[in-house]
């Protein structure tokens, strides 16, 4: 039943309802929907939206009625406490009375001070507006109004501070209620948005969530949820509305992920057979014994590849956890089946390192390994391509150069993608399409993504974690400091005992996209403080070959300090690097810092990390988490809480998920929505839901 019929609003009876709003109860949204407006109607059809407003609204992404309905408040202001003036106490309140007196005058500084007296029969109260000269003209005198705002002491008395004034009606939007505050842009106010929404609400909306699911999880229906997001009767209602809409976003995502997974499962892959003895021999030949989780994930991968459907697995392990050897084992199994492996890496340096590692591990089995990068000579490249076609090469490691059309295979069985977040879905597809059957896919990442986020971002993948580190690794001693002199002294001490040091600097200027200027400047400063140090640098403009050569010189000990922008972030392995300095550390997320820190401490000697924020405050607390913790996943979780998913995982990824309300740090909600999706049979899905799920599938270009 409608609340209006039960209790009336603020003591008013139905007869007070003004013409425009007949039939709509803004408090509970019953008593008739607004049928004048189609959801696709242009926003310009609304009263008060002219071409200027329409242009501004477009900036907010609002062009239709549906867009307006989905433009949700950022927060609320609670003006629901309507008090008589004699009972008014300091705080956020609404009073209902008439403006009896009003005057404006200039202050000594030339600002306008407007004062008004509001009387409700029990007493009178002052309201003040500072420097809002237009207020005086807009205030209705001698007519019942709500005045809502903060009652506080100023100008020698208690007064309402710059309150909102609205004529009394059955449907107050700006006072005497919980008032929504919207994201706005210049020339658009929350008050306007409320006014426009008043013309379209309540709008009857199709509910994509099946009724059975709504009942099981006690969810508001769609119509009620959208209405309550904008004009809730209580904060509980607002919370329930938000929960319901966030649930919907995740529910649709998980249904889409289920579909994608199902499609992959229906593809045919070439199953591999597993020669246990050969692999056992290969593992026994390694210079170390595998950690428990390396063993376990290798085993899972082999099991996956024995099936007739493609493997689609993500191997997540902190920097230095030893993912490469797991990938090598997978490649060995595939090679034993006379099938080929393509191993994609984001940089030439990394590809070169992987090729070397794989060659070392696989050579005893007689497996041919080749390297394809932009640095290959034409003849060399032609030769590799030919031998790939003839199945004389079993494993090819490479950069984007692998994706080109002339690279073809005689039987591509496995695709390995290192640092998978650096590649787009199209790039991965291009590699996959080089196989006649669907290839098995192993993606690898060091991004220590929290579980709740992994479920949403990588939901269609099976995930293995390398939880334990190879033995003997010491944690990197980390310092957050703005004391440059102290850091230089520490570096000098390290250099004296033969240390190798990375210095990472952020880009100084937007225009310095390759970091040339930043790197040069940093190198000069370092040289001044450390005159004997041999300093070399890397920048983004260098050719891949040049970069690899520079890295090699550093690895070989021809230089003591390597200055670079974040190029060293990705997977580079210089085992005896002893320290890393990160300038402008506050610009990096904790996950990135943790990856950078992972460049050092790769052997058993003590290693150090110096984080130098540009300013000592602000970021300090966050950075200090780096001093306290060495666990990448824990740091990622903290970062997610502190900064939100968009900041950390990039707006692009976050945007592709298109989560407006669901917070990806809300593990409980994510799990609930996932369960609900898993429990929903296809037959329960209505046409509206199906369409949304399909759109989501096409939108999710993440992996
Ligand atoms: P990431 O997971 O960051 O890609 P890598 O595969 O580059 O790590 O391995 C980091 C280093 O650890 C390499 O030098 C590798 O040889 C070594 N390593 C890998 N597994 C083990 C192990 N089980 N025991 C000892 N060292 C290992
Ligand atoms: Mg790696």
What would you note in describing this structure?
This protein has about 700 residues and is an alpha/beta fold. It has 24 helices and 20 strands. α11 crosses α12. The longest helix has about 30 residues. The protein starts with a helix and ends with a helix. Bound molecules: adenosine-5'-diphosphate (ADP) and magnesium ion (MG). Magnesium ion binds next to α11.
Poorly predicted sequence stretches spanning 5 or more consecutive residues: 1-32
DSSP, total strands = 20
Cα-based radius of gyration, to the nearest Å = 32 Å
Decide which structural class fits the backbone: alpha/beta
Total helix count? Answer: 24
CATH level-two architecture of the domain at 276-466: 3-Layer(aba) Sandwich
How would the global form be characterised?
A: globular
As laid out across the biggest beta sheet, the strand order is: 10-11-9-12-13-8-14
| Most strands sheet | 7 strands, parallel
CATH topology of the domain at 276-466: Rossmann fold
Helix content: 25-40%
N- and C-termini, Cα separation: 48 Å
CATH top level class name of the domain at 276-466 = Alpha Beta
Strand content: 15-25%
Q: Which hetero compounds are present in the coordinates?
A: adenosine-5'-diphosphate, magnesium ion
Question: What's the rounded overall pLDDT mean?
Answer: 86
Look at the structure and name the CATH superfamily of the domain at 276-466: P-loop containing nucleotide triphosphate hydrolases
Oligomer state of the chains in this structure: single chain
Write the layout of secondary structure elements.
Layout: H1 3-7, H2 51-59, H3 65-69, E1 75-78, E2 91-106, E3 112-119, E4 124-130, H4 134-138, E5 145-154, E6 157-167, E7 178-181, H5 190-200, H6 211-216, H7 222-230, H8 235-265, H9 276-285, H10 292-305, E8 312-317, H11 323-336, E9 340-344, H12 348-362, E10 369-372, H13 378-389, E11 395-398, E12 412-417, H14 425-432, E13 440-445, H15 451-457, E14 462-466, E15 477-480, H16 484-496, E16 501-504, H17 516-529, E17 535-537, H18 544-555, E18 561-564, E19 579-583, H19 590-597, E20 608-612, H20 620-628, H21 632-649, H22 651-657, H23 667-678, H24 687-699
Parallel strand pairs: 4-6, 8-13, 8-14, 9-11, 9-12, 10-11, 12-13, 15-20, 16-18, 16-19, 17-18, 19-20
Antiparallel strand pairs: 1-7, 2-3, 2-5, 3-4, 5-6
Helix pairs in contact: 7-8, 8-23, 8-24, 10-11, 11-12, 15-23, 19-21, 21-22
Residues 288, 290-291, 294, 317, 319-325, 446, 470, 571, 573, 575, 602 line the site of adenosine-5'-diphosphate (ADP).
